[in-house]
Amino acid sequence: MLTTTTRIAALAAMLALSTGPALADAERLEADLRARFAGTPGEFTLGEVSDSLLGGRTTAEDLSFVEPGGERVSVARYVVEGDYDAPDAVILEGLNVEARGEDVGRITAERMRVAEPEGPLLWGEGRSLEEAFVAAELTIDGLAMEGEGGGVASADGKKPRPARAASRGRVTVEHLQAVDLSRRAVGRLEMSGIAGESEGGDIGAGRFSLAALRIEGLRQRDGEEEDATLDRLEMNDLSIEADRLVAELASLSVDGDMTDGEGGVRLESLELDLARMIEMAPPAERTQLRMASNVLTGGSGRLTLDAVFDGNWEALGAKALLAGESRISAGDAFRWDLDVELPVRLPDGVEPSTYLARMDDLEGVTLLGGEIETTLTDLGLFGRMPAVMAASRGIGEAQFLEQARTQAKGFGTMLGPEFGAVLDGLVDMMEGQASELMVHLTLPAESGVDSLAADPLALPSKLSMRVETR
Predict the structure, then answer these.
(1) Which residue among 58, 222, 275, 392 is buried most deeply as judged by most CB within 10 Å?
(2) Would you say 245 and 206 are in contact if contact means Cβ atoms under 8 Å apart?
(3) Residues pairing with 10 in the sheet
(4) What pTM does this model have?
(5) Which residues lie closer than 8 Å to 17 by C-beta, 6 or more apart?
(6) Per-residue pLDDT tens over the stretch 102-149
(7) Which top-rank group of organisms is this from (predicted)?
């Protein structure tokens, strides 16, 4: 049986073994932190640096660095977990970053954890913000960002890019998680409990909330600093209430990864509160806006939009088949459908799958014919148009429709019978004689997209166009 003296000696030996390396880590962390800010204009202060009882965790308290211009970075607690040279994680608690100058701003976070960082210090001399967070995983709780100014800092932290309008705003995020962070890519980014408010900007003062946002496969293209691609984006339950926009969105999903031959966009239940937006508009504009709202919504003042855009491609040697289906539904107003099937020849020397997966438009490809069919369906919009349009011109509905028919024939004479048939079909829908207008196009073979776009008025003579109403 061990005596009391033996037990005390054994405990002292265990403590000595466990605290020895950790104390060395604490000394190294303090030395590294002080060396990082040594010679940098400004004042750096550091509180107590200590180790855990059993090692494997080194903590620095009350870090603060204040630059001569007033910029400030402070951290209540900086923790290095695991091996000091190759940490399991670095944790920052009570983070506060304040900026001054052209763009006044502040970033705070209750807790930030960086898993498997490149070293015990998240930032170093000459390292950019992107390089600081090269890690397996980043999680942030209680994130808040607020700022004001007429510019937005560039990605490299240099001269700010001019913003569209000076504004002041604040955004908060309850939880953020990002995995597989590299200098030019993020494997997955998820945020929840997002809310914000702004005192200015493109849509005016207001506030917004977003329940969840998920981004997968975000990558910056080589050699293109501001061009990025993503594999997938999803957002749910967005609400916006601002001076020039009042809207709610149930969900938006974007499949941007075309390497598998298909992608698309789906927007579900975007509801625009036109009545509220009109109330906040300048008084001189409200009459015209109410007329437009009545045509679109039948007097309800609320317009709901749903949209689906699906596209796919199939490589056939040096040729390819591009196809797509799209549909936009606007509540009690209209529905628009578009079906496209285009055989094309690709530029010489390209690898088809790589070229098609990154293709943003049809520039450089040769059309080998193809079919495009679009259908416009009246869900109430066209039946309401004559009364409102006639009232705005101070004439009767019959006279308005007669003028519209005359104008359609005149445009048909100038631009061709195909365009005239389209305009005639729209008048038929306004008169209640038709509920759908379908246009079927057959494209010419061996034609470049650039040449077709250069002379749009000559398109009817270059393609086959069939117009039907029903």
Answers:
(1) 58
(2) yes
(3) none
(4) 0.83
(5) none
(6) 778 899 999 999 999 888 998 765 555 556 667 889 999 999 999 875
(7) Bacteria
